């Protein structure tokens, strides 16, 4: 391939054009920076150093110096929201909307900010109306997320299902767990009005949305047990082992009650014993210990606790063993030595209980909220299935 000498003449020309383009861009950048008020840069500096009060003052000064800049208004409004001064954010954005010279896209942007203000202020009806009006593709996903939050807070589960399904389609992010719980909420609502067929339909839809929805099978079993169909209830609850076995402790009392209703208590205890040996769940041990103590007596309960204590040392299991031993010794013929042993056992149990206290709780994995009882939805952050199946020591 022969070298074309005319390229030597063209290279300086290309270099000059590139240099000229760079100068034009640099000049434009410098002119845009010069157009920004100095207070804007002061505000940025205060934000970086986490001085929000001073940042608000600086951005307020910048807005007064450049009243046409939407970006400055949005930055100030966002600061107001973050500081909890929602009234000032609402006033700021309403004032912007009154400007007749706003272009359609600018008006949409201001409307989106105002909707966030209303949501932060708890004015859900106003927020909902504005978010629904944001039908532009650029705002559709954030608007749907906000609407979904509103529907959940207002317990409008049908609308929540519709919003979550559309959001899943647009974003590609799965909402299967959330949708299954929305159907469960509708099922609970139907159960309260004794509309059991509708409740069952909703629970089947929950399982279609998320095959591992433990809550759906818990509720389906509850419906069967309430109708005295205890065998069907047991079969339904047994499915949980193949979904998320860590939740077996939650339905263990329900299982035992249905086995008792069928006069099959021994079979129920044997099933729980199998679950305990397989999955080593502390909550399941508590249920099994109390049931063994009631059904088979203190000796059997003590044996159960002793065996588990050997496998896994635990203060709570030791407490159970001491509780059972106290009952055994108390029920034996009264003798001074045995009475003294019983008193010693009671003292040891009291010491253990004092050390343990009532320090177990369900910790939300999203926000750290502590609950005494299990919740499918965190009462603090509203996340679904964020609380573990088993309580932990605080």
Write a structural description.
Helices cover 73% and strands 2% of the residues. The protein is an all-alpha fold and 394 residues long. Among the domains are: 36-134, Tetratricopeptide repeat domain (Serine Threonine Protein Phosphatase 5, Tetratricopeptide repeat, Alpha Horseshoe); 230-291, no CATH class; 297-349, no CATH class; 358-394. A three-stranded antiparallel sheet has the order 2-1-3, with no helix packed on it. It starts with 5 loop residues before the first helix and ends with a strand. Mean pLDDT is 80; it is low at 5-17, 19-35 and 38-49.
Key features of this structure:
394 residues; Serine Threonine Protein Phosphatase 5, Tetratricopeptide repeat; 3-stranded antiparallel β-sheet; 19 helices; 73% helix; 2% strand; elongated
Summarize the topology.
Blueprint: H1 6-35, H2 38-48, H3 52-65, H4 70-82, H5 86-97, H6 104-121, H7 124-133, H8 137-153, H9 157-171, H10 176-192, H11 196-209, H12 214-226, H13 230-238, H14 248-261, H15 265-279, H16 282-295, H17 298-311, H18 315-331, H19 336-356, E1 360-363, E2 370-371, E3 392-393
Antiparallel strand pairs: 1-2, 1-3
Helix pairs in contact: 2-3, 3-4, 4-5, 4-6, 5-6, 6-7, 7-8, 8-9, 9-10, 10-11, 10-12, 11-12, 12-13, 13-14, 14-15, 14-16, 15-16, 16-17, 17-18, 18-19
Number of strands: 3
Largest sheet: 3 strands, antiparallel
Strand content: under 5%
Q: How far apart lie the N and C ends?
A: 78 Å
Secondary structural class: mainly alpha
CA radius of gyration: 33 Å
* CATH homologous superfamily descriptor of the domain at 36-134: Tetratricopeptide repeat domain
Under CATH at level 1, the class of the domain at 36-134 stands as: Mainly Alpha
Count of helical regions: 19
Percent helix, as a range, is over 70%
Unreliable sequence segments: 5-17, 19-35, 38-49
**Reported CATH architecture of the domain at 36-134:** Alpha Horseshoe
Shape estimate? elongated
pLDDT averaged over residues: 80
Main-sheet strand order equals 2-1-3
| Element pattern in H and E | HHHHHHHHHHHHHHHHHHHEEE
CATH topology of the domain at 36-134: Serine Threonine Protein Phosphatase 5, Tetratricopeptide repeat
């Amino acid at each position: 391939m022969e070298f074309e000498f005319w390229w030597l003449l063209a290279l300086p020309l290309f270099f000059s054009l590139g240099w000229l383009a760079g100068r034009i861009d640099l000049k434009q950048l410098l002119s845009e920076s010069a157009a920004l008020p100095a207070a804007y840069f002061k505000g940025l500096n205060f934000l970086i150093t986490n001085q929000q009060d001073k940042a608000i003052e600086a951005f307020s000064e910048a807005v007064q110096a450049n009243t046409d800049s939407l970006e400055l208004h949005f930055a100030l409004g966002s600061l107001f929201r973050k500081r909890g001064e929602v009234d000032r954010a609402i006033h700021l954005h309403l004032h912007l909307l009154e400007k007749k010279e706003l272009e359609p896209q600018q008006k949409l942007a201001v409307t989106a900010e105002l909707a966030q203000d209303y949501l932060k202020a708890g004015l859900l009806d106003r927020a909902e109306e504005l978010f629904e009006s944001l039908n532009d593709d650029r705002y559709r996903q954030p608007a749907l997320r906000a609407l979904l939050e509103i529907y959940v807070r207002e317990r409008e589960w049908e609308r929540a299902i519709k919003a979550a399904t559309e959001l899943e389609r647009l974003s590609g992010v799965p909402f299967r767990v959330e949708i299954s719980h929305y159907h469960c909420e509708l099922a609970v609502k139907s159960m309260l009005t004794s509309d059991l067929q509708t409740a069952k339909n909703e629970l089947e839809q929950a399982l279609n949305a998320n095959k591992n929805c433990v809550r759906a099978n818990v509720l389906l079993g509850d419906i069967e047990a309430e109708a005295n169909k205890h065998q069907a209830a047991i079969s339904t609850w047994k499915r949980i082992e193949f979904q998320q076995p860590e939740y077996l402790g939650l339905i263990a009392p329900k299982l035992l009650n249905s086995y008792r209703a069928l006069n099959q208590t021994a079979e129920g205890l044997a099933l729980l014993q199998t679950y305990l040996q397989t999955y080593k769940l502390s909550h399941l041990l508590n249920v099994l210990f109390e049931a063994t103590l009631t059904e088979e007596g203190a000796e059997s309960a003590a044996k159960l606790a002793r065996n588990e204590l050997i496998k896994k040392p635990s203060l709570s299991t030791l407490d159970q063993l001491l509780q059972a031993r106290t009952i055994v010794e108390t029920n034996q013929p009264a003798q001074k030595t045995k009475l003294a042993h019983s008193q010693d056992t009671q003292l040891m149990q009291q010491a253990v209980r004092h050390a343990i206290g009532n320090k177990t709780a369900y910790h939300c994995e999203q926000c750290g909220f502590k609950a005494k009882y299990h919740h499918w939805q965190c009462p603090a952050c509203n996340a679904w299935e964020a609380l573990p199946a088993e309580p932990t020591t605080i």
